[in-house]
Every structure is written in C-alpha cells, then in structure tokens.
C-alpha cells in the first residue's frame, strides 16, 4: 500500500476537536488544538492526548504535569482554528480567549462547553508526537452540546 492510500484511510477516523490547556511553571497559560484524544480507562478515569514534540505548549505540558481538555461545540470552528497556531498569554486571555484557572492550575477556556482536568500519569514517545496519559481529577459540564469533529469542518489533522 502506498503512503497516499494509507493517509486517505487514516483520515476516515473521526476526531473531536479540543483545546488542550497547559500552564508553565511560572503560571504562563497556553493551549493548542488537538484531536488525537481518547479515554483509555474506567478506573481510574484516564485519557490520552497526543502533542507534537516540537511545540512550546508540549514543553509546558511536560514541565507542569497537568493539562485540561476544553471541549468545543459544532459552532466553534473559529476557536479551534485559532489554537492551531502559536498564541500568546495576555492578562486573563490566551489568544484572545478568556479562561479561568482550574484546580490543577491549567486554564479552563470560557467558551468550552465542558472541561476535564488531568494530572499526567505517564508519557510515551510516538513518532513526531508524545502521548500523555492523564488521570482525570476534575470535570465541569457547562451545558449539553455536540462536539466539533473533523466531519463538521474542512480541518484535517490525520493521515
């Protein structure tokens, strides 16, 4: 099978879009759009998130040992796109998006419909990404909503 065929097949796996919130040792909040997320355990509740190894936000995630998953709804493609590029922490916003500080210190973005806060329980290299295992330590559902997926957008991060 050729690379193009493999890529096209992998692109058929549906992914939700989240902003992974991270915080540096000095309190610098930041975040990045991610879609490679999955629950992997019931007891304890654990999720995995993949992060590009060469990003500053991945360095912050690794240094702090905590992260948040901020769930985006089907009307928030613009927010998902904003966090695909480097953004700046400015006062009470990151990339212009307001946030509150969660129990773990990770940012909980105001516009997300739900949040999970996690402590890193493990890390594994995976090609050009690192996979972080996070144990869920806090959660918040602000409102019911349908998650934004790659099927709702022209955004493409697979293959």
UniProtKB/TrEMBL annotation:
<dbReference type="GO" id="GO:0042602">
    <property type="term" value="F:riboflavin reductase (NADPH) activity"/>
</dbReference>
<comment type="similarity">
    <text>Belongs to the non-flavoprotein flavin reductase family.</text>
</comment>
<dbReference type="InterPro" id="IPR012349">
    <property type="entry name" value="Split_barrel_FMN-bd"/>
</dbReference>
<keyword id="KW-0560">Oxidoreductase</keyword>
<dbReference type="GO" id="GO:0010181">
    <property type="term" value="F:FMN binding"/>
</dbReference>
<dbReference type="InterPro" id="IPR050268">
    <property type="entry name" value="NADH-dep_flavin_reductase"/>
</dbReference>
<dbReference type="InterPro" id="IPR002563">
    <property type="entry name" value="Flavin_Rdtase-like_dom"/>
</dbReference>
<dbReference type="Pfam" id="PF01613">
    <property type="entry name" value="Flavin_Reduct"/>
</dbReference>
<feature type="domain" description="Flavin reductase like">
    <location>
        <begin position="10"/>
        <end position="157"/>
    </location>
</feature>
<protein>
    <submittedName>
        <fullName>Conserved protein/domain typically associated with flavoprotein oxygenases DIM6/NTAB family</fullName>
    </submittedName>
</protein>
